[in-house]
Amino acid sequence: MPDPSAPEPASTDPRADAREWERCRRAFEGYLRIECGMAPTTIEAYGRDLRVMCEDMVAWGLIGPSAVTPRALADHIASLSRDRGLSGSTVARHLATIRVFFRWLLGRGQIETDPTEILQTPTRWKKIPGVLGPSQMRRLVEAPCETNADGKDTLRLWVRDRAMLELMYSSGLRASEVGAVGLTDVLDTLGALRVLGKGSKQRLVPMGEPAQAWLGRYLDECRPALASRAADRAAAQGRSPTDGGRVFLTKTGRPIERVRVWQIVKKYASIAGLSGVHPHTLRHSFATHLLAGGADLRVVQELLGHSDITTTQIYTHVDRSQLKSVHERFHPRA
What we know:
- The structure is a single chain.
- By secondary structure, this protein is mainly α.
- 54% of the residues lie in helices and 4% in strands.
- It has two domains: 14-107, DNA polymerase, domain 1; 134-327, hpI Integrase, Chain A (Orthogonal Bundle), CATH 1.10.443.10.
- The protein has a three-stranded antiparallel β-sheet with strand order 1-2-3, with no helix packed on it.
- The longest helix has 21 residues, at 14-34.
């Protein structure tokens, strides 16, 4: 008679293993969506991390979560940096996802012990964010123009792209937040934008005058044609319009996705002769330039939507030029 406390033997049917892991992962995502009320982007991030883990577990012939050992998870975590080249912060995020997943399984009684309890979080080096100088930022936001536009750009998408870049830099938006901005979130009379950030937290951020001007131009000159395309296509297929009331739309009239925002930023960074630029670079530059101009750290924290000020403090390293002037102004013996 087999020992009931012994771990399950390795499976010889990879397809069965994959189905078992897929079932568990989907149930977990349902829990995050229904019981925890997490944002779709958060659930998507959890799902991506778990899919990577499941691939390794299936490759190693582990039937399901109950067959997983701390050693197997340690090997998986090590492989993320060794074989996949992930950074320490990304590996730490994967481990956080795995911990939540196995604690959920333990709470449901699907496993008897939590194999993540003895795992240590990898050291996370504080990486200094890349920022653009004011002149570089000007080159980037001014790159979308009629001169640089594709000859086939009859929809004047360059106007949309200029409005998007101006808004990202003016208000410190994440790529996912840009796509989520709705028409009702643009508060013209206040010159502000209502933003839905991480954890479904709302914040109100001001828009600079250039951003307001280009956004107004996009809404007048470009968006109606994009929305009309979506409406015509939906009517032909007997469906409701698909623009979702979002501000920024693709050339087919659908709400713009985070991946497309990345592509747009990279495109114009290349035109502007800038390398290593991504959507978060605009957010980093927004925060850094505010602090360099004398903004209070707490104010920048609110504008960025950071729940913890230590996350915002990483930007204080960037502008050391103010230290000497502040010392000279306020130190009695300067």
